[in-house]
Write a structure and sequence with these properties.
Family: Belongs to the SLC29A/ENT transporter (TC 2.A.57) family.
Radius of gyration: 23 Å
Oligomer: single chain
CATH superfamily: MFS general substrate transporter like domains
Keywords: Membrane, Transmembrane, Transmembrane helix, Transport
Number of domains: 1
CATH class: Mainly Alpha
CATH topology: Growth Hormone, Chain: A
Shape: globular
Order of helices and strands: HHHHHHHHHHHHHHHHH
Number of strands: 0
Largest sheet: none
Protein name: Equilibrative nucleoside transporter
InterPro entries: Eqnu_transpt, MFS_trans_sf
Organism: Aphanomyces astaci
Length: about 400
């Protein structure tokens, strides 16, 4: 009888095989990265619609479409969320995530193609706003499923979803800058076609990330052991989370009150030519996106002692930026590009940091059996803050003369 060598015996020994804890840790690291891609993917189409300010100006020279897009998207989004909360059912993860991404891809293809088969500003406006509404409804189902799923995982999943949201805004801004730079300044339509095409391909990455996530052992185990009552929105749950959810909504409200509308309306005071060729608003939008990512990344690495009891300290002070940035946009007091850059940077940094911490600390308020429902509730309050911010932004713009609505 041939005996196995000592080296083979040592390799087969349980002591040198990866432990369950090690495998779980590796699985969780992979899962966190996949959640980052999913967070990036699900918000990408909204960011993609907000970024090409120069293209919308070409299509609608007498109408500031950014404000209208923001309102239509967010109103449709929040109304769909109300229906989702009212139904109070466990999300059908595969249907909502894969289906949501598929609808987003179709919209990102149809919107630019409509330029070639529609005529007249009114037809284009109906097409763009209708597509935005459809995009919002699909994103609501996708959004609630992603947040609910991430809430069931250990620490790191929610943070990476938030980081992915920030990256989405940054990448769309980068896409727009690169595609615009590839064409002469007067070929806005051609550069926009490339921009939307690359965007549609990017969203497909969200589907791939979800399918890869489903194959991980930790994902199968998490979904298998998740309590069936996770979507029960009982009064006791709201008592635990309501205050923190309101702070979460306020953190997004502040950002959307100023971005994209006010940010895109801040003119260049030192380089007027950047206003004429459309580069200045794109650069400010890109700066905001970069700052937002840095803020979200910082929050994922260090909370600075912020807890669910003290998160208000990073949420409420941000509202001081509202009058400052309105002054910069209307040419009062702050009429230097350096000041505008400072304000936009502070808005992005503080927004990324506050929004990430505000959503993460909500999970600290509940038991494991309530985290699935809490994830859906957080997604609702995020979108509530977004729609309130976007709506107030339109009112602010009209009062300040920023948008010809």
């Amino acid at each position: 009888m041939v005996r196995p060598s000592a080296n083979v015996v040592q390799l087969l020994s349980p002591s040198v095989l990866p432990s369950h804890a090690t495998l779980t840790s590796v699985n969780m690291r992979v899962a966190s990265k996949l959640f980052l891609v999913m967070g990036f993917g699900y918000i990408f189409p909204y960011c993609a619609m907000m970024q090409p300010v120069d293209y919308w100006t070409t299509l609608f020279p007498n109408f500031n479409l950014v404000f209208a897009l923001s309102c239509v998207y967010n109103v449709a989004n929040i109304l769909t969320f109300v229906v989702i909360l009212w139904r109070s059912r466990t999300p059908q993860y595969s249907l909502q995530i894969v289906g949501g991404f598929a609808v987003q891809v179709v919209v990102l293809i149809l919107v630019p193609l409509s330029y070639y088969f529609l005529s007249g500003e009114s037809q284009h406006l109906v097409m763009v706003l209708t597509s935005t509404g459809v995009l919002a409804i699909a994103s609501s189902f996708l959004d609630s499923a992603v947040f609910s799923l991430a809430s069931l995982f250990p620490k790191g999943a929610l943070e990476n979803v938030q980081l992915g949201i920030g990256f989405s805004n940054l990448i769309t801004a980068t896409y727009r800058l690169v595609t615009k730079a590839m064409f002469p300044s007067h070929l806005v339509v051609e550069s926009s076609m490339m921009y939307f095409g690359v965007g549609a391909l990017t969203v497909v990455g969200g589907v791939v990330a979800y399918l890869m996530l489903k194959r991980l052992a930790i994902a199968r185990e998490t979904l298998k052991t998740a309590p069936q009552q996770q979507q029960s929105f009982q009064r006791s749950l709201w008592t635990k989370i309501l205050l923190n959810e309101v702070l979460l909504a306020l953190s997004y409200l502040c950002s959307l009150l100023l971005w994209p509308g006010v940010v895109s309306n801040i003119p260049s005071y030192n380089f007027p030519s950047l206003n004429a060729n459309g580069w200045w608003p794109l650069l400010l939008m890109a700066l905001f996106a970069l700052s937002d990512v840095v803020g979200r990344f910082a929050a994922s690495k260090c909370r600075l002692g912020i807890t669910r009891f003290t998160v208000w300290k990073v949420v409420l002070p941000r509202f001081a930026l509202v009058p400052l940035m309105v002054c910069a946009a209307t040419g009062h007091t702050f009429t230097h590009d350096g000041v505008s850059v400072l304000f936009v940077t502070l808005l992005g940094l503080s927004g990324g940091f506050a929004c990430t911490l505000a959503v993460v600390v909500v999970s600290d308020c509940v038991d494991d059996s309530e985290k699935g429902a809490t994830g859906v509730a957080s997604a609702f309050f995020i979108n509530l803050g977004i729609v309130l911010g976007a709506t107030l932004s339109v009112g602010l713009a009209n009062c300040m003369g920023l948008a010809p609505l």
